[in-house]
Specification:
single chain, 309 residues, alpha/beta, Rossmann fold, 2 domains, 5-stranded mixed β-sheet, 4-stranded parallel β-sheet, 41% helix, 15% strand, elongated
Length: 309
């Protein structure tokens, strides 16, 4: 083979390598870097925040973790029934993931011990909306925007955030017009008829309260997930608060509460200022903030009762 032919072959190979390098993009994440030369088409989501973000972007995951729970706790955006379940969020099946032949896996640092194993299956992007000292909504926005870049859907990601901002502003104005923004609210999930999970100022829900111009009745910081577990008597220390119960609630709860002095003596109960809203996932991404703001505005305008449904 002549030197001229070798030179031409070398030049062609260099051009190919240069083209590959030029089109490859790298993103930093919590466990390292993600480098892709093509837009992923088959994406697996190992937590509900990632599932939500993908669905908002118009991307149906090829597999998700804890599929059944998503329809109970998250609900929106709706997950198509045909999407396969690949195990739990804390222990997904690596075999099931591999069988789906994904070209991207989205997970959080809770799965850090398995990151190396996941990366053997497909490129893996690690981002945690919730971790110590994080700001959940800011991190959720970052996740949505970065996934928009990775999936070549940047304009859609920006449009989603713009729509959320507009919706929050509109709900705030509705509350103001109805004079329903002048009392603090306590956001709770019932664990049993004596104890609730109460949402704190450092959680995702606080973003919705801030956007609506509402004061969180519970002034104390919670765990890094943004909540504390307290007895009903703890809410009595804030007599001006309205109580907003976030579903789901346990069967028979209303009957138990009717006979509970811890409940019936609460000022909010006696003033018929108990409100109930549909389930909103408190550890999700950007969408739960808009969902809670809309549901909460509707409930506060419609008026309260003296018990849960």
């Amino acid at each position: 083979m002549s030197i001229s032919i070798l030179l031409r072959i070398t030049a062609v190979l260099c051009l190919c390598v240069s083209a590959t390098v030029a089109t490859a993009t790298t993103w930093q994440h919590e466990q390292g870097t993600l480098t892709l030369s093509e837009t992923p088409k088959r994406v697996v989501a190992l937590n509900w925040a990632a599932t939500e973000a993908l669905l908002l972007l118009g991307v149906t995951p090829v597999g998700v973790a804890d599929k059944a729970g998503y329809s109970v706790w998250v609900k929106e955006p709706e997950l198509p029934e045909a999407v396969p379940n690949i195990g739990t969020r804390v222990a997904p099946s690596l075999e099931a993931i591999a069988e789906l032949k994904p070209d991207l896996i989205v997970t959080s640092s809770e799965m850090a011990p398995a990151t190396d194993l996941l990366e053997r299956i497909a490129p893996t992007y690690v981002i945690s909306v919730y971790k110590k000292d994080s700001r959940p909504f800011s991190k959720a926005r970052e996740m949505l925007l970065t996934l928009g870049e990775i999936l070549d859907l940047e304009e859609r990601a920006q449009a989603i955030l713009t729509d959320i901002d507009h919706t929050l502003a509109a709900q705030r104005e509705r509350l103001r017009r109805h004079g329903a923004d002048d009392q603090p609210v306590a956001l709770v999930n019932f664990l049993d008829d004596r104890h609730v999970r109460i949402y704190a100022p450092n959680g995702l829900y606080q973003t919705a309260l801030n956007a609506l111009g509402l004061t969180n009745a519970w002034p104390h910081a919670g765990n890094y997930w943004g909540f504390s577990v307290v007895g009903l008597e703890a809410i009595a220390a804030y007599p001006d608060s309205r109580i907003v119960v976030i579903e789901p609630t346990r069967p028979g709860l209303s009957e138990h509460l009717e006979d509970s002095p811890f409940w019936t003596y609460l000022p909010a109960v006696q003033r018929d200022e108990i409100y109930q809203v549909d389930a909103v996932w408190p550890f999700g991404g950007v969408f739960p903030v808009m969902r809670l703001a809309s549901n909460l505005t509707d409930a506060l305008i419609q008026g309260g009762t003296d018990n849960v449904r």
